[in-house]
Amino acid sequence: MPLSSLILASAVGAGPSAGRPSGLKVLTAGAFKSVVVALAPEYEKASGNTVVIANDTVGALAKRIEAGETFDVVVMTPNAIDELAAQGKVVPGSRTDLVRVGVGVMVKAGAAKPDISTVDAFTAAVLAARSVSYIDPASGGSSGIYVARLLERLGIADQVKPKQRLKQGGYVADYISSGEAELGIHQISEIVPAPGVTLVGPLPKEIQNYTVYAAGIGAATKHMDAAKALIAVLLGPSAQALFRSKGMEAVAE
């Protein structure tokens, strides 16, 4: 029997007398929320436990945890989990890398797709757009921080600033579908399922940036086996199929 099945079987057989949680608290950052929401029913059916999900940016979640918020499982970037483990907030050695997602460009459904096949073409498309939207870096979102730095690196930040429409967390696609912005830059997994927008494509490989999502177990959890079982589901066959449908990729070895 695979390890993930063994962990799930252990959680299912634990029963209330073994301290089975009535609600396993999961904190998840950014693009991974939709994955946890989609897979939670599989875990709940197999274990009899419920999952309580809270979502925020990586930066905001880190601040909440540092301030004392307790949880059973957290999904965020590997570096953030490592830092929390060093602070005694996450169980050392519990980090499990799950998936990675690249950054892409979107336009409103039905709109012409600009050429973004090269760095020069992407730069020209951004400069030609009447307005550009991405996550506000100040909110702590990893894609917004990267895009802001990328625009600086390309030497076009000052030109883009007057026409940028910064999104305070959530979905950049909201601004694109509503017409508030013409061109959107966000993680591909936040573009693919969004209604009213079309994925133009990923950033050119020379400027692509992958956000890795990893899971860690809260140091204060009283439900270690249940937390491990949930992480096993987040790595299982259903998760792999879901990752592909959302434009996510397996973490490179």
Helix content: 25-40%
Residue runs with pLDDT of under 50 for 5 or more positions: 1-19
CATH superfamily of the largest domain: Periplasmic binding protein-like II
Q: Give the rounded overall mean pLDDT.
A: 89
Q: Can you give me a brief rundown of this structure?
A:
The chain has about 250 residues and is α/β, with parallel strands linked by helices.
How would you portray this structure in words?
The chain is α/β, with parallel strands linked by helices and 253 residues long. The protein folds into 2 domains: 3-100 and 213-245, Periplasmic binding protein-like II (D-Maltodextrin-Binding Protein, domain 2), CATH 3.40.190; 103-207, D-Maltodextrin-Binding Protein, domain 2 (3-Layer(aba) Sandwich). Helix content is 40%, strand content 21%. The chain has helices at 3-14, 33-47, 58-66, 78-86, 119-128, 142-154, 157-160, 173-177, 188-191, 224-233, 237-245, and strands at 24-29, 51-56, 73-76, 96-101, 103-108, 132-135, 164-167, 183-187, 197-202, 211-217. Strands 2-1-3-10-4 form a 5-stranded mixed β-sheet. Strand 1, helix 2 (33-47) and strand 2 form a beta-alpha-beta unit. Helix 1 crosses helix 10 and helix 2 packs across helix 10.
